[in-house]
Design brief:
Elements: E1 14-17, H1 24-31, E2 36-39, H2 43-51, E3 67-71, H3 79-90, E4 93-98, E5 117-120, H4 126-129, H5 135-141, H6 153-170, H7 178-189, E6 194-195, H8 198-205, H9 209-221, E7 225-228, E8 244-247, H10 250-256, H11 265-287, E9 293-298, E10 304-311, E11 314-320, H12 332-340, E12 345-350, E13 356-358, E14 361-365, H13 366-376
Parallel strand pairs: 1-4, 1-5, 2-3, 3-4, 11-12, 12-14
Antiparallel strand pairs: 6-8, 7-8, 9-10, 10-11, 13-14
Length: 377
């Protein structure tokens, strides 16, 4: 098992969210081995607590002073009222994991009023993988723990997609037409790393626009995709208004994205490189509590910077290119961004091997950038 960077609180209850397959269960069961563990995917436990959430106290030994772990808590949102009561009455400490925020975000669900902190588990980072990190493997299959341990990572990812369709979508009744949702997932994969055009996706998968908008919300609620907003702080130029779309892991994107003789490998590879950098950026920012918000930047005439990290620690701008050959024109977005935000630190990340500098722009090989991201941020 890989050691994770996430640092839990010592004595305060917390939520731990993350997509299926990121290792939440493995982590909590190894890190908190003395705790009481309740898996709501187990039918007997689920049925018992679903019928009467107040039975939760029956699973906790008398005078128990360690952690109580409830896995997949989103399956019984009403259980949070009882968790709240037991925190107040008996000072119990809870770890509440979830792979979906959909039901928990509903109006009226008890979020424990600050009595539980919020944490997120991501795919493995380069630091967590250590010597096992292989850039080509990560670009092909992503960094979910199992793709680095399974003999056939491609088969695992195909099963992963099927599991989400059957377990999270079908069983929860989130969509009426599973076939339409499958077509949507494939169409959405063509939006990876691009400005999101919902109408275009709706046409591609032959589904109504309002339905597709709901599908995108479902992906976000299941924590398997997100939209990156445009950076517009004190904007001096007219900017694009729509967000960019990303699936949370390279492997999921590559599995959903069909490839044929008319598809350009360099385009898919470029989006894969962006996605890998973004998931590393998201994870390091979260685990080290750096407090950045992640944006992209694009003017109305398509001058772009892939990612902007903005927070109390400053502004960091990143342009990601798959190419191993650099031209001055590739720096246009970063140079334009610097003119608008002179205090920003700018980085050009590419597929070559030499560290360079052009003016104030630091040029880094992708592997170096991924390994050094905690220092850069």
């Amino acid at each position: 098992m890989y050691s994770r960077l996430i640092v839990p609180p010592k004595d305060k209850s917390f939520f731990l969210f993350g997509p299926r397959g990121t290792g939440k269960t493995t982590w909590v069961r190894s890190k908190f081995a003395r705790g009481v563990y309740l898996d709501l995917l187990e039918a007997e436990i689920f049925n018992d607590l679903m019928a009467n959430p107040q039975r939760l106290g029956n699973f906790i030994p008398k005078n128990f002073d360690d952690w109580v772990i409830i896995d997949e808590v989103q399956r019984i949102p009403e259980l949070l009222n009882e968790v709240h009561r037991l925190i107040e009455k008996n000072r119990h400490k809870f770890i509440l994991t979830g792979s979906s925020a959909r039901k928990i975000r509903r109006k009226g669900v008890n979020l424990l009023a600050g009595r539980a902190l919020g944490y997120h588990l991501y795919p493995l980072t380069v630091a967590e993988l250590g010597e096992d990190f292989n850039l080509n493997h990560s670009l092909a299959y992503g960094q979910l723990p199992c793709v680095y341990t399974e003999e056939n990572p491609k088969a695992y990812l195909e099963s992963y997609v099927k599991t989400y369709l059957e377990e999270e979508i079908q069983q929860e009744g989130l969509v009426r037409n599973l076939g339409a949702f499958s077509r949507f997932l494939e169409a959405a994969s063509f939006s990876q790393g691009s400005i999101l055009n919902i109408s275009s996706v709706a046409r591609d998968c032959s589904v109504e626009r309002k339905v597709v908008e709901n599908y995108f919300t479902i992906l976000e609620d299941l924590l398997i995709a997100y939209r990156i907003p445009v950076f517009s702080k004190r904007a001096k130029r007219r900017l694009i208004a729509h967000p960019k779309f990303y699936f949370f892991d390279v492997g999921l994107y590559r599995t959903l994205r069909p490839m044929g003789p008319l598809d350009m490998p360099e385009e898919v590879g470029g989006h894969a490189l962006e996605t890998l950098f973004l998931q590393e950026l998201q994870a390091i920012n979260s685990y080290l509590a750096l407090g950045y918000t992640i944006f992209y930047w694009m003017t109305s005439n398509k001058v772009e910077v892939d990612f902007v990290a903005y927070g109390a620690r400053g502004i960091k701008a990143f342009e990601i290119k798959r190419t191993s050959r650099i031209s001055s024109s590739m720096m246009k977005g970063l140079r334009t961004f610097q003119k608008n935000y002179p205090t920003a630190k700018t980085y050009f990340i590419y597929g070559g091997e030499r560290r360079l500098r052009e003016g104030d722009i630091e040029i880094l090989p992708i592997k170096d950038a991924l390994q050094e991201l905690p220092k850069i941020l």
